[in-house]
Amino acid sequence: MTDAAPAPDRFSRLRARPEGFEERSKALTARRYARERRFKALGLGAILVAMALLLILLSSVVRQGYGAFWQTYVRVPVTLDAAVLDPKGTGDPEVIGKGNFQKLIYEGLFGLFPEAKARPERRQLTRLVSSGANLILRQKVLDDPSLVGTTRDVWIVASDEVDQFMKGAIARDAPPAARPLKDGAIAAIDRLEADGRIEQRFNTLLFTQGDSREPELAGIWGAVVGSFYLMLVTALLSTPLGVGAALYLEEFAPKSRATDFIEVNINNLAAVPSIVFGLLGLAVFLGLFNMPRSAPIVGGLTLTLMTLPTIVVATRAALRAVPPSIHQAALGIGASKVQTIWHHVLPLALPGILTGVIIGLAQALGETAPLLMIGMVAFVVDAPSTPFDPSTALPVQIYLWADSPERAFTERTSAAIMILLAFLILMNLIAVLLRRRFERRW
Amino acid sequence: MQGETALNATALALDPPQAARAAEAGPKTAPKMATRGVKLWYGAKQALFGIDLDIKANEATALIGPSGCGKSTYLRCLNRMNDVIEGCRIEGEITLDGEDVYDRRIDVVQLRARVGMVFQKPNPFPKSIYDNVAYGPRIHGLARGKAEMDEIVEQSLKGAGLWKEVADRLHAPGTGLSGGQQQRLCIARAIAVSPEVILMDEPCSALDPIATAHVEELIDELRHDFTIVIVTHNMQQAARVSQRTAFFHLGKLIEVGETDQVFTNPRERMTQEYITGRFG
Ligand SMILES: Nc1ncnc2c1ncn2[C@@H]1O[C@H](COP(=O)(O)OP(=O)(O)OP(=O)(O)O)[C@@H](O)[C@H]1O
Ligand SMILES: [Mg+2]
Question: Do B123 and A255 touch (CB under 8 A)?
Fold first, then answer.
């Protein structure tokens, strides 16, 4: 290179502006602004549409479902006749438990309507209260045997027809043939209401009961416990497996064709429709290993297959985000590879890993299709006491209720959706909080 | 073109007898570390072409040369940090106190405890200052009990000239220190395991002149107790802190000798050109 002074017009071509440059430049600028405005408007529009759809969805669920959190009760003076329940005065719960509580409730009810003597009239009266109310009364007496021999006002669960009538879902002026409550029953309800004997109270049964054929007695407790066991099994299996696989692939595996192949297939696994995992669970866990049908353990195993790729992918991303300088620092003072990973890499990747695990579990919590395949759609009344007992799960319960014709079940379907959504929101919240809590800057 | 002919000439000039003579120019003591014919490939690309170099005990050896000439690569050979690089292959002999560091019987973790490293960018762990320094001694089991560990941490931080600044906040995060303090923390972390050799790859390149002066003073103190190899792009720094200087070019060792001699009276024309800035 020479030190000679550069020619004076070395950049003449660059400096020269073509004719009409000013105007074209202005037009270009205007077009650029317009394009930016359009782009922003488009993005904002997309967000608004998404928000609106979400709002419509949520509000319709809430509108249909909030009623299910209230249940109509009838205050009935019940005489817990010792002669009926415990004629020999044993005080033995076995004996008391066999008593005819239904009869006691009906008699209390007939006592409120002394003029109703004929059988059809009395039949109308018996339809006011839930046919399962006796079980709740029985439990109450068993819990406190001193009640035997007393007469007291008891709030008895009303039947779902009365409940829906009180909530206005059954029109009073509909033709009698089109409504489930006859005129006599409606007159009785009116009288009970006038006496302050009918009332809507918070529906604790929805949270404490398992599934039931009677909508007024159907609750989500069994499904919640089933879902809890599902999540437990899934979390315990998929977290160590997923994190372990990701750690191996990211930190130990040699870069070879085999690991590339595995990587591609893990990503493919994430795209497999969930019902296929259900089929796999059916064939392998039920068919091959003869595991119990409808049990959370099998559901958990199946959901583990589904959750694994989510956890593997999230964990690998979290591991990759740990700066290589941290690796070098640890190796440089003589930490072994495993020490480097345990002491430095994993703690730094933890928030990302936890987020991945929770998102994977949240997906699993809402999953229905694979559970249908392994028989978790059975009608199960009792909450499972171990992961090996037959059980339902929250989304499956929603599916089952949505299939029932009664108006009261429609209401409960929406309520269960709200509860499931609440759990999902809670899990995502935990993910966010954990992220905040463990996030460290370097 | 010109560079290539010069290179061929040096390659010839550096055949074994002369290289050995160059290496033994100093006083007649066994070198702390020695490399013979070290060749290194990253995949198919060769980065080092037979490096013969002795690192003498209790001296600072400076490695200089244009960017990409293989200084960092060579440095990483000395404590086998290249092992973790995918597709990296190495040939030749590297010894520490006469023992081959690539020998099967040598445990790489033990080797790195004996040959420590300080990196170009300060990289403290996102932990407290105390834990940063205590980590090495802890994993190598160098302290029995908290009192001993406290002493180790204090001596290391004093050795790195950081003690006065952080004594009252040992449990504050190490990442909260200034860049120069972080680099001295990394030096404290490296000396805490009492290595025999400390490798420094451009330790001052991310520091301002004052912090640089701090670290340079430190290196000059540390060399009395440790053997130091430092990579630097700063000729003044090489001249200030090192006793011996090695000039690398395109993966070859062009010249090595007493720092005074290399800077005032280099044997090779290429060294002369590089030092005076007429090259690159
Ligand atoms: N991990 C790697 N994989 C492949 N090639 C590498 C790798 N690290 C270094 N190289 C190549 O090896 C050669 C020597 O690199 P090295 O980092 O040792 O140079 P350097 O002398 O330290 O340069 P600088 O002064 O810029 O730090 C360069 O050509 C570089 O591109
Ligand atoms: Mg370098």
Answer: no
Could you tell me the strand order of the sheet in which A151-157 lies?
A151-157, A70-79, A198-202
Beta-carbon contacts of B214 under 8 Å, excluding residues fewer than 6 positions away, are: B161, B180, B184
| Residue B124 touches partner A, C-beta closer than 8 Å | yes
Sheet bearing B88-96, strands edge to edge: B45-55, B33-42, B88-96, B99-100
User: Using one digit for the tens of pLDDT, what is the confidence trace for A137-172?
Assistant: 888 888 888 888 888 888 888 888 888 888 888 888
The C-alpha of A350 sits at a distance from chain B's nearest C-alpha, in angstroms, of 13
Which atom belonging to ligand 1 lies closest to the Cα atom of B87?
3
**Domains assigned to chain A:** 72-203 (no CATH), 221-438 (1.10.3720.10)
Could you tell me which chain B residue has the CA closest to the CA of A335? B109
The pLDDT of residue B16 is above 50: no
pLDDT at B6: 41
Within an 8 Å CB–CB cutoff, is residue A241 touching chain B? no
The atom number, within ligand 1, closest to the CA of B202 reads 27
Q: A218 pLDDT band (50/70/90 cuts)?
A: confident
| Structure tokens belonging to residue B267 | 């044997």
B51, B67, B72, B121, best to mutate for ligand 1 pocket (most atoms within 8 Å of CB)? B72
Kindly report, residue by residue over B160-215, the tens digit of the pLDDT: 888 989 999 999 999 999 888 999 999 999 999 989 999 999 988 877 888 788 88
The crossing angle, in degrees rounded to 10, of helices B179-191 and A324-332 is: 30
Residues 6+ apart with CB under 8 A from B240: B216, B220
Give contacts of B186 with chain A, Cβ < 8 Å: 329
Q: Give the tens place of pLDDT for each residue, A314-370.
A: 999 999 999 999 999 999 998 999 999 999 999 999 888 998 999 899 989 988 888
Please report which helix (H) or strand (E) contains residue B2, including its range: helix B2-13
- Interface membership of A10 toward B (CB under 8 Å): no
DSSP code at position B173: B
Bridge partners of B255?
B247
Packing angle of the helix pair A221-247, A394-402 (nearest 10 deg): 130
Q: What CA–CA distance (Å, rounded) separates B273 from A55? A: 73
CB-facing half-sphere around the CA of B126: CA atoms within 13 A: 16
Nearest CA to B188 among B147, B244, B177? B177
DSSP output for A365-397:
HT--HHHHHTTTTS---SPPSSTTS----HHHH
Q: Looking at the whole model, is its pTM more than 0.90? A: no
Whether B111 and B79 have beta carbons less than 8 Å apart is answered as: yes
Which tokens is B214 given?
Answer: 């701090």
Name the residue among A267, A234, A223, A276 with its Cα closest to residue A364: A234
Q: How many CB atoms lie within 10 A of CB A257?
A: 7
Q: Which of B247, B149, B153, B217 is nearest to B191 (CA)?
A: B153
- CA B204 / ligand 2 centre spacing (Å): 12
> Using an 8 Å Cβ cutoff, are A386 and A440 in contact?
no
Question: Around B175, how many Cα atoms within 13 Å sit in the side-chain half-sphere?
Answer: 8
Distance CA B201, CA B120 (A): 5
Given CB atoms, is A255 within the 8 Å cutoff of chain B?
yes
Give the strand pairing for B45-55 and B33-42. antiparallel
Amino acid letter, B184: R
